[in-house]
Specification:
The structure is a homodimer of 377-residue chains. With 377 residues, chain A is α+β, with helices and mostly antiparallel strands. Helix content of chain A is 37%, strand content 23%. Chain A has three domains: 188 residues, Bira Bifunctional Protein, Domain 2 (BirA Bifunctional Protein, domain 2); 99 residues, no CATH class; 52 residues. In chain A, helix 10 runs antiparallel to helix 11. Chains A, B: GO terms for molecular function: glycosyltransferase activity; histidine-tRNA ligase activity.
Amino acid sequence: MTDFANRALLPAGLRDMLPPDAAFEANVVNQLMNGFAAHGYERVKPPLIEFEESLLDGAGAATSSHTFRVMDPLSQRMMGLRADMTPQVARIATTRLAQVARPLRLSYGGQVLRVKGTQLRPERQFGQAGIELIGSDSPAADAEVLVLTAEALINLAVPGVSVDLALPTLIPVLFGELGLTGALAERMRAALDHKDSATVAEAGTAAPLLARLIAAAGPADRAIAALKDLALPPAAAAERDRLARVVELVRADLPGLTLTVDPVENRGFEYHTGVGFTLFARNIGAELGRGGRYLAGGTEPATGATLFMDSVLSALAGPKPGPRVLVPAGTDRQRAKALREQGWITVAGLEPGDGMSEAKRLGCGHVLGPDGLLDVQ
Amino acid sequence: MTDFANRALLPAGLRDMLPPDAAFEANVVNQLMNGFAAHGYERVKPPLIEFEESLLDGAGAATSSHTFRVMDPLSQRMMGLRADMTPQVARIATTRLAQVARPLRLSYGGQVLRVKGTQLRPERQFGQAGIELIGSDSPAADAEVLVLTAEALINLAVPGVSVDLALPTLIPVLFGELGLTGALAERMRAALDHKDSATVAEAGTAAPLLARLIAAAGPADRAIAALKDLALPPAAAAERDRLARVVELVRADLPGLTLTVDPVENRGFEYHTGVGFTLFARNIGAELGRGGRYLAGGTEPATGATLFMDSVLSALAGPKPGPRVLVPAGTDRQRAKALREQGWITVAGLEPGDGMSEAKRLGCGHVLGPDGLLDVQ
């Protein structure tokens, strides 16, 4: 391996984004953030690094094993490099912005770092872009966050956007009402996560209901209808009704969106306190984002969603290069400026005489001549 | 201190950027990058973290004492969190993009982290946005980079943009030609850095020339005229002529720019191999950016400049808030969409009946009524 190649070698899971991808990512993030801003979501920017105990507090605890630590030489305390921006935004909402009127709408976009990649996401650095709606317990809040993130993907021209809805609170609430506890409850929750009907059949009197909950999973309208047919105890029925209301509100805003419901899914929603969802695209296997209801600062009702920029970008067709024109040295700069205002990329010739061959070498399709644009052959 | 306040406490030099500042910074960076892109600078995005030896190679060595380190659990090698993006971009140019036609124009924007702040810049995290022009030794390249960064600041409405030019190669070259070496040369270089005419008078036969070099510092036109009057030995004269040519090219493009020259300044340009410059604004003391000529990968002629986003933002008047309108629940969503397309920020009412008082509470100046926009009193 040459010295040059050696120097180019980055740690596994980290990479240089090159032209035109880096500009494309920045433009996509910008488009997302502008879309959220138009709906009243105001951007916050927490630091890349902060004290470990605030970074890993509450919902942040889930990222503890993914988080790089360094010591702060000033305070001699440990700091963590954020592995997720969501807990930071919740911290800002419940501390610095505690006095701001609710519902509070915040947005964020930035890079996160993880100690190790996963099989599904080998990258150790990727971008997040998301929104949080804090201080409202309304189903309209759940629907707004889902609709805005799904619509953001649709507006980017992500093909075949779909959303899987989950209700991670349903089973715990139902088990509580059914008196299903201890080892049996644990075994049944695992069985439900795996849609394991055989094991569920051992749940005694609850078995038929659990089997019907598994069977209800599928396209949202059918799933909601099936759930409405079930005789659920009051608290579980309230959860179900809330989910139905969210689906109804989402349907009203985005009637064409592919929406599925899995009422027994819990995995990946361990910290959620209500409706959760995952965003997919037709052309890639990875999640494009996820969201759901939680308690900000452990007490305040909130819902939010995060888009994973690496997955979002891989679902997109990629950038279209802009038209490039070589502007020879000594050209009146107002002429070049006028071209830029029309959308041209102007590349200045640095040496007198730079013309056709230089334009070709630099990937310019045109040269600005004394009488106008000349095609490069 | 309450638990809440405690959790909000960040390490010294790190901070949460809140609304509306975070969106404003992102918009300013975006405007800068779009401006550079229109001149053919293509964006690259190196990772936040990479192997220590590649991060601190060459010009990166200057940031060694500012750089946080963490161990990579995968390779068991040390990694550094970047304290400066410039060495990363030079690495990309001379390795991954080694085969791309020169001159190569690259841009970058991102966050850097430093172990400690300085008196002038207490922040330990700040944004950089910059350009590199790699593979040209032409004075036109120096001028292009200076003009584009100064013009970028002017386009942002930074008040009173000025540029201080330095020529850190002049004194070493001159001393070589004059046979000034060893301890005397060192003492004279320090004296020149401090404009210490008394010490310079002890330089023997070189003393009058050095005194005139100190005296030449000032507004560019006068400084260049004074330098042209000096009888310099050939290599020093060539350096002087190059600087004069850069000034001439910058003047042609930006005749109104305040431009000063300090021909004996060396501090802060230790790694530069030609013309260097520092960008200032009338209303703040800190540098807004700096740039200059260097050798990318130790061998390839290059010039570039970096803007420091914290300083740039503090020189700006700040964002103007967009007009906000509350859109009551159940409003036809096409009406809200039409308002957004006109530049309105639409804030959805989450509960039926949200109207005037809710709008007022949420900082909306208007409510969308059945017959159009209503002013909030």
